[in-house]
Specification:
about 25% strand, alpha+beta, 5-stranded antiparallel sheet, 3-stranded antiparallel sheet, 4 helices, about 35% helix
């Protein structure tokens, strides 16, 4: 069972202000602060919807003693270390499923807590392209509906976003 997950580093935003403005077809600078504020919101939402971390980020997960350790973040790009207690490095096998979960399997049951240090990032260029497009669709939707007055009930989904979300999760 996982005790804690800590983020060591934060990756850059996947979409730049220039890319967002181009997608929105905005040539002036009047909306730059607002668009810049939308970028991390869109990235956080898209990451949450796909259970993936889009940019290179380092993590530490600490587990109670057990053999199969399900890492909190994905996709895992690199495992830097697996420690039992504070110093004992251990051999392991990393399994990554098609739905994005990553599991560390230890050869035997440890007697102390296990600490796994690893990094996440999208592995393939098509994943990055899909994630960027998801973010741009969200930014476009948030920008377009920022001053909308709503009367009654509205059910709204960006169909292209939903399609891309499932495409990215299935890779």
């Amino acid at each position: 069972m996982r005790r804690t997950t800590s983020q060591l580093t934060t990756g850059a935003m996947l979409v730049t202000l220039a890319e967002a403005k181009e997608h929105l077809r905005i040539l002036h600078d009047d909306e730059d602060a607002y668009i810049t504020a939308l970028i991390p919101v869109a990235q956080a939402q898209a990451e949450a919807d796909t259970d993936m971390v889009f940019t290179s980020t380092d993590w530490i997960d600490v587990f109670e003693p057990c053999r199969n350790l399900s890492l909190a973040k994905s996709p895992v790009a690199n495992v830097a270390s697996v420690l039992i207690g504070e110093t004992a490095t251990v051999d392991y096998e990393l399994y990554q499923s098609e739905v994005g979960t990553s599991t560390i399997c230890l050869p035997s049951l440890p007697t102390e807590d296990v600490t796994v240090t690893y990094s996440t990032s999208l592995q393939r260029s098509n994943q990055t392209a899909i994630a960027k497009h998801m973010m741009l669709l969200l930014i476009g939707q948030m920008f377009s509906f920022r001053e909308m007055e709503i009367t009654g009930t509205i059910v709204s989904k960006v169909q292209g976003y939903e399609f891309l979300k499932y495409a990215l999760r299935g890779q």
